[in-house]
């Protein structure tokens, strides 16, 4: 199955809005000095992850569970800060799991899918490069997730907000651009998309497309 044959998610805009609303709620709770308002962020984050009306049982459980956890977070507000770090660490574990013998490194899966969208094949000599970057992303995600969970455990909401909303996206974008520029220099004979198109192609990839 190719990327073109997969249906588009009609709730994508709502999920993106929910993703942006989550740190906004944490910021509002911080500004108003009302930590219990952080509890509202849990169902909002759940919607960002699985959509408002998930069909899969796991998504339904996650959404219902987030509503139940709201009651707990009212009394323990710092718990609302934990999900991003834990999600990041879980993604790092997934990246690392694809490095096992017999598995295709995740970066190679993504590159293969992007090339399939354009009717092209990846160059065999670039496979070690993609494996190396899968290792790099595993370590980077572990660092980002570890820092986020540490700040959450210490209930340093202000620093947590800075790390999640400013530092982490900056690190992600800088790393993507750095890989792109280094790859152009490492493989000057390969065909390379313009940077804007490269980032757009990556943004169009959905998790289920590479989870195989």
What does this structure look like?
This protein is mainly α. It has two domains: 1-75, no CATH class; 78-212, no CATH class. Helix content is 70%, strand content 0%. The chain has helices spanning 12-32, 41-50, 57-75, 82-97, 106-117, 127-153, 157-186, 195-203, 207-210. Helix 1 (12-32) runs antiparallel to helix 2 (41-50) and helix 1 packs across helix 7. The chain starts with 11 loop residues before the first helix and ends with a helix.
Concise overview:
Helices cover 70% and strands 0% of the residues.
Q: List the uncertain runs.
A: 1-10
**Fraction of residues in helix:** 55-70%
Q: How many independent structural domains?
A: 2
pLDDT averaged residue by residue:
82
* Secondary-structure element pattern, one letter each: HHHHHHHHH
- Rg calculated over all Cα atoms: 19 Å
Shape annotation: elongated
Largest sheet: none
Helix segment tally? 9
Q: Please tally the β strands and state the result.
A: 0
Q: Give the assembly state of these chains.
A: single chain
| Strand content range | under 5%
Distance between the termini: 11 Å
Structural class: mainly alpha
């Amino acid at each position: 199955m190719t990327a073109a044959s997969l249906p588009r998610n009609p709730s994508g805009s709502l999920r993106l809005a929910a993703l942006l609303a989550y740190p906004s709620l944490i910021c509002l709770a911080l500004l108003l000095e009302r930590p219990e308002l952080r509890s509202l962020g849990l169902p909002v984050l759940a919607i960002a992850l699985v959509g408002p009306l998930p069909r899969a049982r796991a998504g339904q459980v996650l959404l219902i569970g987030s509503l139940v956890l709201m009651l707990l977070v009212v009394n323990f507000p710092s718990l609302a800060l934990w999900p991003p770090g834990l999600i990041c660490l879980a993604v790092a574990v997934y990246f690392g799991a694809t490095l096992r013998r017999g598995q295709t490194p995740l970066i190679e899966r993504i590159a293969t899918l992007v090339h399939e969208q354009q009717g092209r094949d990846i160059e065999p000599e670039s496979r070690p490069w993609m494996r190396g970057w899968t290792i790099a992303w595993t370590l980077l995600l572990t660092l980002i997730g570890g820092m986020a969970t540490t700040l959450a455990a210490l209930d340093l909401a202000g620093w947590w907000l800075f790390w999640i909303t400013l530092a982490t996206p900056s690190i992600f974008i800088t790393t993507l651009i750095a890989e792109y520029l280094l790859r152009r220099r490492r493989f000057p004979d390969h065909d390379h998309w313009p940077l804007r198109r490269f980032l757009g192609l990556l943004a169009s990839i959905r998790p289920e497309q590479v989870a195989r």
